[in-house]
Amino acid sequence: MHAVTLTAPNDLDQWREPARRLLAARVPPDAVDWRMIGREGGLFDALAPEGGGAAGTAPVRVPRRFLELAETAICHSDPGRFGLLYRIAFRLQADRTLLEVASDADVRALDGLIKAVRRDSHKMKAFVRFRALDETGAQFAAWYEPDHYVLERTAPFFAERFAGMGWAILTPYRSVFWDGTALGFGPGARRSDVPETDAMEDVWRTYFRSIFNPARLKVKAMTAEMPRKFWRNLPEADLVPELIRQAQSREAEMIARKGTEPPRRHARMVARKAEGEPSVPAGEDFATLEDARAAAQACQRCPLFENATRTVFGEGSADAPIMVIGEQPGDSEDLAGRPFVGPAGRVLDAAMEEAGFERAKAYVTNAVKHFKFVPRGKRRLHQKPDGGEIAACRFWLEKEMALVRPRVVLALGASAAQALLGRTVTISKVRGKPLALPDGTPLMVAVHPSYILRLPDPAAAEAARAGLVADLAAAWSMAMDHGERAQPLDTGRRAP
Amino acid sequence: MNIMVQLSLSRKLAILSDAAKYDASCASSGTEKRSAKGTQGIGSTAPGSGICHSYAPDGRCISLLKILLTNFCIYDCVYCVNRSSSNVARARFSAEDVVGLTLDFYKRNYIEGLFLSSGIIRSPDHTMEEMVRVARSLRLEHGFAGYIHLKIIPNADPALVEEAGRHADRLSTNIEMPTDQGLSRFAPEKRPEEIRTAMAGVARRWQAGRADPRAKARPERFAPGGQSTQMIVGADPSSDATILTRSASLYAGYGLKRVYYSAFSPIPDASANLPAVRPPLMREHRLYQADWLLRFYGFEVEEIVAGGSDGLLDLSIDPKLAWALTARHLFPVDVNRADREMLLRVPGLGARAVDRIVATRRHHRLRLEDVRRLCASLAKVRPFIEAADWSPGALTDSGTLAEKLKPAPQQLSLF
C-alpha cells in the first residue's frame, strides 16, 4: 500500500505531483491510500506533501480537460476525491476517451463532485451577506460556511463585483480580503469575528416580508433552492416560519373581503379624465385623413388586429396626385408602423428613383392594413390576406381614396388589384395597361416589389424589375400629365 | 402639504414592494458581461444565468430589488392592486430613495440589481422620465454596473425609451391579457395596439443595437438583455391555446427573451369583477413547461394543445408527456439511432440528457442502464424508447399507460 499525505484540501498541484509518480509506476488505484492532514486553517501548510514512494518511468498523459475538471472536483469535501481523481487518471492511461462516456460510474461520480462544487460556489455568490464595519459604509465583512472548499475559486467573483469597496469573507477554513486592488488570503476564522448585525438588515427584512405573496405558498420550491443549512447566516431567514404560518389566513382574508368604495381621489380622477378626454372620431365619416388614421388604430373589422402590432395606415399628403397601393404591411412595416419600409419597400424606392417617381409626393398605402403572418420560432412568416380580409379592409381604402382623391391609382400586386376591382386578376395580363376604376379614375397595375424578391432566377427578377420601373414611370407621367389639379380640393369634384 | 413626506423609508419600501410583487419576473440573466473591476464603482453581471440571492416562501427567486417608484396610478385596471379605485396604502419614492436603497442592498450582496416599475402618474412621459432618472443616476453618478430592469410605459417619448435602453439591461412592457378583448374589459385605459407598439419599438431598436461584425463603429448600447413581457392567467376565460398562440406570436414578432405567466392571484381590496379564487398555480406551471417546448424543443402550439382537451393543458401530467400519449405511433424511439430532434420529444428527456445520450452513444451502444444514469427518472422515459437491451413492446400502446405515468396524488405539506 502506498500512502500519500496531502496538507491542503483543494490544491490540485499538491495532488498532481505524487499522482504523477504513482502513475509512472502504474500503481493501481486500490493500492494507494490518499490522506489529508492540516484541515484546521492551513496549520500544516508549511509541510510538503509526502508519500507515494513508488518510482517508475512509464509515460503519463491525461487530457487537458481532465485537469480542468480535477481542479473543480478537488474542492469537494468528500475524503474520497483524491482517490477518485487518481482512479480516473489511471484509467485514462489506457482509455483516452473515458471522460466522454457519461454513463461510466467514475465519470458520473466526478460529474457529481463537480456539480456539487459549482453549486456550492454559486450558492456562496448568492448567500454571502456583508455587514458594514463602521458608519462610513466603505468596509464590509461577512461570515460564511461553505460545504466545500470553494472560497478561493469564488473570491474573484467578489473582487470584480465589489471592486470599489473594502471587504472580507471569513470562513471556518480560510479567509479572503480585498483592499480595492488585490485579494489576500488568511487563516480560517470565527463567526464572532464579524459584526453581529447591520442597520440595513431590518430594511432588507421589510423587503423580504413584503415581496412574498401569501396566496402562492410553495415551501418546497423555496427550500429546494435555499436549503435550511444556509439559513443561519441569512438575516431574512428567521421570518420564514411566521410568513408560512400566516399565509393561509392572509389569503383567505383577501378572498373573503368584499370590494370597498373607491377612494375620493379616484372619483376626482374619473371626472377630470371625462373632461379632458381627447376624443377618437366616432362614426364612419371622417373629415380628414388624420381622423381616419386615428380611428383605424382601433379597427377590429377582421381578426388580423389581434396578432399584428397595429394598423399601418397610408402615408402621404391629402392632395397627392397619385396613390400607390400594396398588399399589406410586412414584418418591418408592422414594427415601424409605416408602409413600404422593409425589403420590398427598398426595392420599390429604388425602382421609383429609377422611374423618376417622387415617393414623397405620392400617397402610399396597402389594401390590408394589418400584417398577416404565422409565427415560426423567432420569425413571422408572411401570409397572403384572404378575400374576407381584403373586403373588410376596403372600408379604409375607400376612406383614403375619398379623402385623397388621387388623379391616378397604382396597384402593386394581385391583392391590391382585387381590392380595387372587386375580382381577382392575373397581374401578367393586366399590368402596364391603362385601366379605370368604376368612378373613372385611371388605374395602373404593376407587380408587387416582393414578387421580384421571391423570383429565384436573376434574369427573371431583372425583367420583372424593369417592368415595375416602366409601370411606375408610366403612372407617374399620367399623374403629372394632368398638370395642376383642375379643381380645388374642397369643391368635392374628383379630378377626371 | 404632502402626507407622503412623513412616511419612513421602510414604510415606503413595504408599500412599494408589496405593490410590485405581482410582476413575476425577477430575472437578472441574459445580459452582457460587465463588471466594476478597475473602477471605484460596484457591480457586475454575467452573460449566462443570474443569481438568486434569496427565496420567498412562495418559491420565487429574489434576485432584484423589485419596486414601484410610486403606486399612485391614474389607470383603473381591474386586476391590479394599484388601480386608482383601490384603497391600498399609497406611497412614492424619490429617485434618490431608490438609488440609495439599491446601492445599500447591493453592497451587502442582497441583490443583483434593480427592477423598477411605476404606476402611471400624470402622463406616460412624466412617469418614464422619473424611472430613467433613477437608472441614469445609478449608472452615471454612482458607477453602478449591476443589473437594471426598467418597465417601458407605452406611448412614452422614443427619446426616453432610447435613454432607458442605454442604462438598462432589460426592458419590459406587459401585454397583461391573452386577448385584446380581455384587455379592453379589464384595463379600459390601456390600448393593446399601444402596448404592442411599445414592444415593436424596443424590438426594432434592439435589432439595430446588435453589433454588426462588419460595421466599423459599434452601435450604441441598447438593453443587451432584451425585453420580456407578462400575461395574467386565469383572470379572464382565455384558454391555454389562446395564451400559447399569443406567446408564439409575441416571441416571433418582438424577439422576446421571456413571456412570464402570472397566475391571477387574490389581491388586497380586490375588485368585485374578478374571480375570488386561489391562483391557478399548476396551470401556470404547465404553461411554463409548454412555453419551454415552444422555444427549445421544436414544438408547435397545435401539438402542445392536442395533449389536453378543449384548448386546456392537462394539469395532471406535463405537456410533453401529454403530447406523446396522443402521438404514440411515433414511439418507441431508438436511443442509439434517433436524431436529436426526435430524442427531444421523448417524455422525461431534457436537452441536457439528450446531449449526453448523443455524446455517449458515439462510444458504445446504450443499454437501458446507461439511459437511467443519463436522465433524471427512467420511469417516464422507458415506455417511449428502445435501447440495446430494451424494447417496451406493448407498453407504448398500453391503454393504462397514462394512468401509470401520472404522479400519485400528493398531500400538500406545510413544512
Task: Identify the notable features of this structure and list them briefly.
heterodimer; A: 496 residues; alpha/beta; 4 domains; five-stranded mixed β-sheet; 42% helix; disordered C terminus; B: 415 residues; Transcription Regulator spoIIAA; 3 domains; six-stranded parallel β-sheet; two-stranded antiparallel ribbon; 12 strands
Describe the structure.
The complex is a heterodimer of chains A (496) and B (415). Chain A has helices spanning 12-24, 64-73, 81-94, 105-127, 151-161, 200-211, 219-225, 240-256, 264-276, 289-296, 331-336, 343-355, 387-404, 414-421, 427-430, 449-454, 458-481, and strands at 2-6, 32-36, 50-51, 131-132, 139-143, 166-170, 174-178, 183-187, 322-326, 363-366, 373-376, 379-382, 408-412, 435-436, 442-446. Chain A has 496 residues and is an alpha/beta fold. Chain A folds into four domains: 2-121, no CATH class; 128-193, no CATH class; 200-256, no CATH class; 289-484, Uracil-DNA Glycosylase, subunit E. In chain A, the strands form four sheets. Chain A has a five-stranded mixed sheet with strand order 4-5-6-7-8, covered by helices on one side. In chain A, helix 3 crosses helix 4 (105-127), helix 12 packs across helix 17 and helix 13 (387-404) crosses helix 14 (414-421). The longest helix of chain A is centred in the last third of the chain and has 24 residues, at 458-481. Chain A is elongated and about 105 Å long. Helix content of chain B is 36%, strand content 10%. Chain B is of the alpha/beta class and 415 residues long. In chain B, the strands form four sheets. In chain B, strands 5-6-7-8-9-10 form a six-stranded parallel sheet. In chain B, strands 1-2 form a two-stranded antiparallel ribbon. Chain B folds into three domains: 12-172, no CATH class; 173-209 and 225-268 and 278-314, Transcription Regulator spoIIAA; 327-403, no CATH class. Chain B starts with 8 loop residues before the first helix and ends in a 10-residue tail after the last helix. Chain B has helices spanning 9-18, 95-107, 124-141, 158-167, 180-186, 192-209, 240-254, 281-296, 301-306, 319-326, 340-343, 351-360, 368-374, 378-381, 401-405, and strands at residues 34-35, 44-45, 54-55, 61-62, 64-68, 113-117, 147-151, 170-172, 227-233, 258-263, 333-334, 385-386. In chain B, strand 3 (54-55) and strand 4 (61-62) form a beta hairpin. Chains A and B meet through helix 4, strand 4, helix 5, helix 6 and helix 7 of A and helix 1, strand 3, strand 4, helix 2 and helix 6 of B.
